[in-house]
Amino acid sequence: MFHTADVAIVATRKILNNGKGEKSLDHLLSVLKPWSVIGLLATVVLLFGFQANTIVSEPEAIGLIAIPLMIQTYSIFFIAYLAAKWMKLPHNIAAPASLIGTSNFFELAVAVAISLFGLHSGAALATVVGVLVEVPVMLSLVAFINRTQHWFK
Prior knowledge:
Mean pLDDT: 85
Number of strands: 0
Largest sheet: none
Number of helices: 6
Order of helices and strands: HHHHHH
Oligomer: single chain
Radius of gyration: 19 Å
């Protein structure tokens, strides 16, 4: 079943690609990309603002959310990265595949949590903590990937 967004996407792609190749579509995406990043950052900043009291006043709740997320993220990454090494995948496939498999896609989770449960919900708090945890964890994994390039041919 198609949704309105699906139809809009297909129509936009057809109009932009009509005899012009991918250049028109690439131009539109390059114009929209900064706005999508700004929207994501604004959402995260607002969420931090709305959840600031909870983050500061309930550190044990933050720990109960953050610690399992860290364990999950590192575990999934190392399973995927070592499996990629065992399968003799090239580094340029193994690294992004492991990171994508590891990511919790908190940008989507933020939107869903707010839509379903509201800004001040526990679900919104969990997504905010998820963002707080995921960014430094993913950066640490990227550093690890860069140090272990020699593992792969």
